[in-house]
Write a structure and sequence with these properties.
Number of helices: 12
CATH superfamily of the largest domain: Enolpyruvate transferase domain
Number of domains: 2
Radius of gyration: 22 Å
CATH class of the largest domain: Alpha Beta
CATH architecture of the largest domain: Alpha-beta prism
Strand content: 15-25%
Structural class: alpha/beta
């Protein structure tokens, strides 16, 4: 894909889309399958940059990941309770994939080899110190190879044994807790993890716990404050597991249906989904959408202008970005609260979102953990063209590129810079979007 993509003005959205696999589920199940006893067949796996680095990392560690006709269908031969990967020394590059970097850090901390983990420059700016500090009481040995608290990391062999008594902060990223939860059953001996502060993005932890249960490990819990892993816990392959569609990616298409007629139906997620981002459909209902749901699908229809909202988005931070762009079509200010985690994502998403929305004429107020968006005058679906082309910078952040595609329903010509960044989670996004709009 070229360095930019000009989006044609669109006025209507309707149709049905089968979603690609969830990134969060794909990378979790790849790791759990690698740590389990037995062979796991994974279907509908996401093929993207982030899942590719996880597959490559497991291969570099000696785990067999056999492609069955396509990379969406693989068989993973687990290493079981040996607590050691076949390859005892490796340098592993993980791009900007937090869903690979954080869990692999925790797993390799309990392994018996020498490993170096690195990523792209932005990954080296994303904090990991709370995870490393949380692991320290177990006796792991992790060295920072750059700035303290951030990747790259060097991990030395582990010689200890559980039970482990650990604490981890919950108010920066839920991935730190998820990483510990996934690694500790494989480490053996049992563990108790206490969470310091208010845990953010709770649905992602629920997702982790649900997938761990699919692999035979049930975690005890005291609300969101403490989690207990039995000493007898071990991962066992469920045999075959189909990956759900990506609920975060569903948000763009459901929002399009809400703005411009619909119905737009996404398949692969629904009432039975494990993913918290299906709750974005509730946000759209609050903005005026008509939403219907099945076990494996969600459908949205509606028309702009939308009703303004003032909501806590802590449980759905990724999908919340879509609401920030949908606010361009609202009749009053839209406030998204409790989104401090945006600051430490692929880019500082609060700052990036504010900058790009202002290019479109929006009045934007940003704070440490909130953003308030007021639509520019005359910004409406079907409005007469006004002004020149607006070039949206994407900051090497796939979600910036995807959510700003919704600006193409407005009166300004839209150019998306670096559209190829969507390869992180949804390589075919713009082709899929173009099939549903006209």
């Amino acid at each position: 894909m070229s360095g930019y993509l000009d989006l044609p003005a669109v006025r209507r959205a309707a149709g049905t889309l089968r979603l690609p696999g969830s990134k969060s589920i794909s990378n979790r199940t790849l790791l759990l399958a690698a740590l389990a006893e037995g062979t796991t067949e994974l279907t509908a796996l996401l093929d993207s940059d982030d899942t590719r680095v996880m597959r490559d990392a497991l291969g570099a560690l000696g785990v067999r990941v056999d492609v069955q006709g396509s990379v969406e269908h693989v068989k993973v031969t687990g290493i079981g309770a040996a607590r050691g990967f076949p390859v005892k020394a490796a340098k592993i590059f993980l791009g900007n994939a937090g869903t690979a970097f954080r869990p692999l850090t925790a797993a390799l901390a309990f392994a018996d080899g020498h490993y170096e983990l690195s990523g792209v420059p932005r990954m080296h700016e994303r904090p990991i110190g709370d995870l490393v500090s949380g692991l320290a009481p177990a006796g792991v040995r992790i060295e920072y190879r750059g700035n303290a608290g951030f990747p790259p990391l060097a991990i030395a062999p582990f010689t200890g044994r559980g039970p482990f008594q650990l604490r981890v902060r919950g108010d920066v990223s839920s991935q730190f807790l998820s990483a510990l939860l996934m690694a500790l059953p494989w480490a053996g001996g049992g563990a108790r993890i206490e969470v310091e502060g208010e845990l953010i993005s709770k649905p992602y932890v629920e997702l982790t716990l649900g997938l761990m249960q699919r692999f035979g490990v049930t975690v005890g819990r005291e609300g969101w404050s403490a989690f207990t892993i039995p000493a007898s816990a071990r991962y066992v392959s469920p045999g075959k597991l189909a990956v759900e569609g990506d609920a975060s990616s569903a948000s763009y298409f459901l929002a399009a249906g809400t703005l411009a007629g619909g119905p737009v139906r996404v398949e692969g997620v629904g009432r039975a989904s494990l993913q918290g981002d299906v709750a974005f459909a509730d946000v759209l209902e609050a903005m005026g959408a008509k939403v219907t749901r099945g076990d494996d699908w969600i459908e949205a229809s509606g028309s702009a202008p939308l009703r303004p909202i003032d909501l806590d988005m802590n449980r759905i931070p990724d999908a919340a970005m879509t609401a920030a762009v949908a606010a361009l079509y609202a009749t009053g200010p839209c406030t998204l609260r409790n989104i401090a985690s945006w600051r430490v994502k692929e880019t500082d998403r609060i700052a990036a979102m504010a900058t790009e929305l202002r290019k479109l004429g929006a009045n934007v107020e940003e704070g440490a953990d909130f953003i308030r968006v007021s639509a520019p005058p005359g910004f409406a679906v079907g409005a007469a063209p006004q002004g020149g082309c607006v070039a949206i910078d994407t900051y090497d952040d796939h979600r910036m590129a995807m959510c700003f595609s919704l600006a193409s329903f407005g009166p300004r010509p839209i150019r998306i810079n670096d559209p190829g960044c969507v390869a992180k989670t949804f390589p075919g996004y713009f082709a899929a979007f173009s099939k549903l709009v006209s």
